[in-house]
TrEMBL record, chain A:
<dbReference type="InterPro" id="IPR027417">
    <property type="entry name" value="P-loop_NTPase"/>
</dbReference>
<feature type="domain" description="AAA+ ATPase">
    <location>
        <begin position="47"/>
        <end position="213"/>
    </location>
</feature>
<dbReference type="InterPro" id="IPR050764">
    <property type="entry name" value="CbbQ/NirQ/NorQ/GpvN"/>
</dbReference>
<dbReference type="Pfam" id="PF07728">
    <property type="entry name" value="AAA_5"/>
</dbReference>
<dbReference type="InterPro" id="IPR011704">
    <property type="entry name" value="ATPase_dyneun-rel_AAA"/>
</dbReference>
<dbReference type="InterPro" id="IPR003593">
    <property type="entry name" value="AAA+_ATPase"/>
</dbReference>
<protein>
    <submittedName>
        <fullName>ATPase</fullName>
    </submittedName>
</protein>
UniProtKB/TrEMBL annotation, chain B:
<feature type="compositionally biased region" description="Low complexity">
    <location>
        <begin position="110"/>
        <end position="121"/>
    </location>
</feature>
<dbReference type="InterPro" id="IPR008912">
    <property type="entry name" value="Uncharacterised_CoxE"/>
</dbReference>
<feature type="region of interest" description="Disordered">
    <location>
        <begin position="92"/>
        <end position="139"/>
    </location>
</feature>
<dbReference type="InterPro" id="IPR002035">
    <property type="entry name" value="VWF_A"/>
</dbReference>
<dbReference type="InterPro" id="IPR036465">
    <property type="entry name" value="vWFA_dom_sf"/>
</dbReference>
<feature type="domain" description="VWFA">
    <location>
        <begin position="228"/>
        <end position="396"/>
    </location>
</feature>
<dbReference type="InterPro" id="IPR011195">
    <property type="entry name" value="UCP010256"/>
</dbReference>
<protein>
    <recommendedName>
        <fullName>VWFA domain-containing protein</fullName>
    </recommendedName>
</protein>
<dbReference type="Pfam" id="PF05762">
    <property type="entry name" value="VWA_CoxE"/>
</dbReference>
Amino acid sequence: MGAPEEGPREELRQRFPDPAALAGALDDVDYLADNGLATALFLALRLPQPILLEGEAGVGKTEAAKALARVLDTPLFRLQCYEGIDAGEALYEWNHQRQLLGIRLAEMHEDSLDESDLFSGRYLLRRPLLQAIEHPGPRPAVLLLDEIDRADAEFEAFTFELLAEAAVTIPELGTIRALHPPIVVLTSNRTRDLHDALTRRCIYHWIDYPPAERIARIVRRKVPGSAAPIALEAAAAITRLRALDLVKPPGIAEAIDWASALDVLGTEHLDARAVEQTWGAVLKNREDLAAAKERGAAWLAGGGHG
Amino acid sequence: MAETALRRLEPAELAAALVAALHRAGAGGSPERAVWLAQALRLVPPTTRASLYWTCRIVLVSGKDQLPVFDAVFAAVFGEYDDDAELMGARGEKNAPQPAQRPGIRRTPAGEGAAPAVQPGPAAPPAPAPPAAGSGVEGPDREAILLTASAEERLHTTSFAELTEDEQAQLRLLIGRLRLAAPVRQSRRTRPTARTAGRLDLRRTARAARRTGSDPVRLVFARRRRQPRRLVMLCDVSGSMEAFTRAYLTVLQAAVASAKAEAFVFATRLTRLTRQLAMHDPDQALARAAAGAEDWSGGTRLADGLRSFIDAHGRRGTARGAVVVIFSDGWAQDDPADVAAQMARLRRLAFRIIWVNPRKAAPGYQPLAGGMAAALPFCDAFVSGHSYDALAELASAIRSGAAAGPATATRRIL
């Protein structure tokens, strides 16, 4: 994988001597990582190995990669995977239209146009994988392969081949080798089993759903207006809801939505009335709504008296 | 207590020992990972139990399924949990992976039948129950007329419950010949087509134009590719289905190996068997499957099985637009209303639902079992699948867009 660049490596080592330092830095960019996640990202950074993040929807998998990029102050290249994604959309493609236009313009202006002009970087459409590999530094870029399980198995294999080499060969241009191999973060929703070849090459972290106090802290970071008591009350209510048998249990995103809604409404304390007004911010499925309403808004708001 | 001992251990030794223990317990563990772990332990010195736990888990585990085994091995190697608040907080959460079975190894993944040697005391895994072995060996006496028919013919129409071991083996070959293919859907990818029926593909046209002096002489048309829909098979392996389980597992195996289906079995809980069945030798695949699931021939919890399928897999995408085949006799312990609610959810996700009930072939059968009656309105096709011929009917029900013949259930559009 090429000669490792000692300078940036050393800088990373000094900035993040241990997982706690990384957790602190993540905290500074408003991402609260627990011990497990901080260790996982730390190892991804320092080993360095690609990391596969799994967890329920809305526990902050994508957000973790974004926060890592902010901490390192490097660009984040995000590739949203979907079924049928191919190299043209992930790696690079020649801009044929522009090439034709270039030829026509050259004819009109009677310029001389060389083939190598047409196949130069000017006519190359760089997609996220190539962008991440070409990133000039000084620190490695963060490459996020979001929802890799949605892509085809063949694409998965292709991507990994590429990342292991950290180099791309474009026949017309030659081989582009990464100066700073990107830090690769993959997320998966487990719609299918990932290929062994992929799981073998990644370190892995399962992000658990956080307890109420952490949700409250996250909410207060994201919704500056929300006061401490109401964030905690909303987080506790969400935790209570998750104990019900719901089709779509509310997650962190719902907690944030809810706190914002309560903030907009100027609510100071979560009570039955406030809950009645804001059901829609928390529960987004008719059956869930019916199940929660059966328990009553008062139960959700206060727990005890209802 | 372990703390002082840990500092004295060399990272490399520790890594190698832990990886070996994991490997014996059947939860992955490769030399490559041991190297990573040794590196990782240098980066994150294991000063506390929690940091050691996280480092080892992140590097060594490669999937959620392995977490219970990993936790058990870790506990066995480094002693039980002392009350490390953070660890317990992280793992005691409601949605922590398979929380009920944290302390011991409950699953013994395929191919690793032996008990892990590292287990000193409490965490000895129960040996996986054998599959429905020898079912139908002492079946009813054969009628004279069947004896005269050729063996294969007999296999075609005899109920699976009455087959002998040898015949089961032959049947497996027959089932392997069944073509299981799901109906197609339009994919997002396109392919060029000669006809002008498709959409004009500007990008490919422009590329082709480079050959003709940038004049688009040849217009390239594209039409969307067709792809088979996902096929999902859910098989009831409870006691009441025992006689048919073997034959159906063979169908599942054939579907996984040839049609890339997803396979699940359920009795009291749901187990995904796709991985265990994904090999071309049926005998080996079935042996692995037998070790993979643990509640063979238990009671049936139909609604629970469906719910955990939809929650953990179906809703995330496995069942969306898929053809879902359910093998069950509908004799369940749970409330029919629950079954109906879960079937309604599945109906909203799936493209088609096909219910295979081996008891349907019995003369005078009426779908009166509570679960079955509740589920039927949500099914697109209701087939018997009790014999080889009936399985051929199933194959055509899977393939067809329309429902299959007179066996069709009433269909309600929701």
